[in-house]
Amino acid sequence: MRFTLTDEQQMIQAMAREFAESEIRPIAAEIDREARFPHETVKRMAELGLLGIIVPEAWGGSGGDTVSYVVALEEIARACASHAVVMAVNNSLYCWPVLTYGTDEQKERFLTPFAAGHQLGCFALTEPQAGSDATNQHTLAVRDGDAYVLNGKKQFVSTGREASAALVFCQTDVAKGSHGISAFLVEKSAPGLSVSKTEDKLGIRASDTAELVFEDCRVPAAQRLGEEGQGFRIALSTLDGGRIGIAAQAVGIARAAYERSIAYARERTSFGVPIGQHQMVQWMLADMATTIDGARLLTQRAAALKDAGAPHGAAAAMAKLFAAETAMKVTTDAIQVHGGYGYIKEYDVERYFRDAKITQIYEGTSQIQKLVIARHVLGERA
Amino acid sequence: MKILVAIKQVPDTATQMKLGADGKTIDPTGITWIVSPYDEFAVEEALRIKEKRGQGEVVAVSLGPDRVKEALRSCLAMGCDRAIHLNDPAWGAADTLMTARALAAVVKQEAPQLVLCGRQAIDDDMGALPAQLGELLGWPSAYWIMEEAVDADGKTVRVARQVEGGLEVFDLPLPAIVTAQKGLNEPRYPTLKGIMGAKKKELKDVKAADVGLAAEAPQLSITALEALPPRPPGRIIQGDLPTAVKELVRSLREDAKAI
């Protein structure tokens, strides 16, 4: 068993770290405050090849592996969780399914410019009544000649406003339930598709979370991804990979909070000594260090399994569950270490705390991860 | 146009330096190694010259132990076409002159039109190598360059050198040696594609014998290294503001002799 990254993975990590430190971190607090999408730095991420890491060069990507993806994503999330979600969504929720299930014609149009980061993609599964209950899809796609006509509403779509294309899940055969769901690649400019609102959120405020409305939106049949009825399987396998990315994001957020706490514990004094000398602070720091390491190991293991082509659904769910819970606990304790200073916006731990919360919710709540893990350990099919 | 960039691998500036047990070396444990920042400016400039001319070759070269491959790979990831690693126990105790001789031998083999390097390495800050290399090759050299322009024919280079209060401009016939000062450019990050592609590029190991050099003794030997004395703690002047200001001024004038 080896616990070292390859030379390439280390170089990618170093590049992502330096870039995030010098170009993203300085603007992170400001774009959070203003809820402003960071177009310029997202463009820089595209130039560096961070938006299509796992896509082969032939399709506009960087030709890297999933381990490289998670080490880079951790570095970006450490500087800014909003940048990390934009990166995660484009890489794993959009490019990966198009790469895996798309035809060459679909890849030409819906993958190459997206893997290169010239355009962004998004993943539209959630609906007002279909969150954890994702099979309860009400958006309908009705076949009409060589096209489908889409009607319905998609909610909480990360990058939904900024994206140029969406991977949309719709019911094509209501009678078949989850086996009647199909996936479609839809250009955002398609007539009948509109962004009805952008959410005002607790955290990851610089990323946009939008509601997409489909009103008689005609989508050519050639833009259906995979077979009719294959949609839900595409969604689940995509989320298996996506969760590894969210785990990496959670590790990055937790690490940022932990590093700030270490620095603060060294410099802040109380009762005549640095607070790091107090056992109760040490206790929190030791727990942070241990759980972050555990979360990272689970995350990198899930990524390595995916790279090896091995089953990784349970490993991804464990990584995502543990990393998200770790991020929430570590950021909560980071505020505790900082005391009153941690509660004000001048110190970044306040933002880390707000950003951490979403990792327990999106791409499957912590409760859903437990459900996935339980089904795996009990040997039942989902 | 072929450009050779000489780089040095140095400890990261954030590294806490510790002396080795012999008191003459640095303890390498825990050191993160990087390409010396001034050398990164040189790499960046070489790549820009090549890109601007639309053709050419950029060769990175460095002397040092096995770990130096990592630094050369970073240069390849940034965009250098190939790399040469002067890697031989015979160079284990190389001083700047030995290094310059080794580089001069490589330059003679490679015959580049331009040699670029940083104005000095940030570890020992000697800054002697470019001049020694220029002397050994008999090439014109210009140091601390803030701006550079190779002419269209690739026959001369115009350089602007940082001097107090301004820039000194020179025209040098090529081949020449130019050393980079901070401000020459902003080095790029390697892209993911660049990193993935670096492994496929040539990184050649070269021994002293390969460039026709016999073992020699260094001209320079280190007698001792001393750690910096610990910084004295700051002083906080207590008391009400008018008294404290008076005491501050007195202290700056009489104790620190700063005003």
Overview of the molecule:
The complex is a heterodimer of chains A (382) and B (259). Chain A is built from 11 helices and 10 strands. By secondary structure, chain A is α+β, with helices and mostly antiparallel strands. Chain A has 3 domains: 109 residues, Acyl-CoA dehydrogenase/oxidase, N-terminal domain (Butyryl-Coa Dehydrogenase, subunit A, domain 1); 109 residues, Butyryl-CoA Dehydrogenase, subunit A, domain 2, CATH 2.40.110; 147 residues, Up-down Bundle (Butyryl-CoA Dehydrogenase, subunit A, domain 3), CATH 1.20.140. In chain A, the strands form 3 sheets. Chain A has a 4-stranded mixed beta sheet with strand order 1-4-5-8. A 4-stranded antiparallel beta sheet of chain A has the order 2-3-7-6, covered by helices on one side. In chain A, strands 9-10 form a two-stranded antiparallel ribbon. In chain A, a hairpin with a 2-residue loop joins strand 9 and strand 10. Chain A is globular, with a radius of gyration of 21 Å. Chain A starts with 6 loop residues before the first helix and ends with a helix. By secondary structure, chain B is α/β, with parallel strands linked by helices. Chain B has 2 domains: 210 residues, HUPs (Rossmann fold, 3-Layer(aba) Sandwich); 31 residues, no CATH class. Chain B is built from 6 helices and 11 strands. In chain B, the strands form 2 sheets. A 9-stranded mixed beta sheet of chain B has the order 9-8-7-10-6-1-4-5-11, sandwiched between helices. A two-stranded antiparallel ribbon of chain B has the order 2-3. In chain B, a hairpin with a 5-residue loop joins strand 7 and strand 8. In chain B, helix 2 packs across helix 5 and helix 3 crosses helix 4. The interface between A and B is medium-sized, with 18 and 13 residues.
